[in-house]
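Quick one, tokens below:
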């Protein structure tokens, strides 16, 4: 059986970071969908399952998809995408900052240049 990213030692901390973000309005997708577009579609489905009051509190998202998970196992780094529901650069930047901070709080080393056009790199991972 192939190794899964969910079986890595860091995975519980990764999910804890994502859960903390979700409690603060940034919904997450951990490995669902083969591409980023697939993962965003899955996030949309997840968001529509939220109660209306909870849905109103969501302002951003973060994710990694199946290709990212496979790369993490081979290359020892995990790329995290992020964005905002309003798709405005200042809000996207705040999401990136929040995601980076949440990952650091769980002990991850994060590489990100602060650009809304660049993904966050968790390095090392796996």
């Amino acid at each position: 059986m192939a190794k899964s990213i969910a079986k890595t030692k860091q995975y519980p901390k990764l999910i804890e970071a994502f859960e903390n973000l979700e409690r603060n309005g940034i919904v997450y997708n951990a490995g669902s969908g083969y591409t980023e577009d697939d993962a965003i579609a899955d996030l949309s489905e997840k968001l529509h399952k939220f109660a209306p009051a909870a849905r109103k509190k969501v302002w951003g998202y973060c994710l990694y998809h199946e290709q990212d998970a496979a790369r993490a196992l081979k290359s020892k780094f995990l790329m995290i995408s992020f964005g905002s529901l309003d798709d405005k650069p200042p809000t996207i930047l705040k999401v990136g900052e929040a995601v980076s901070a949440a990952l650091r709080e769980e002990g991850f080393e994060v590489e990100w240049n602060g650009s809304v056009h660049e993904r966050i790199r968790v390095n090392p991972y796996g």
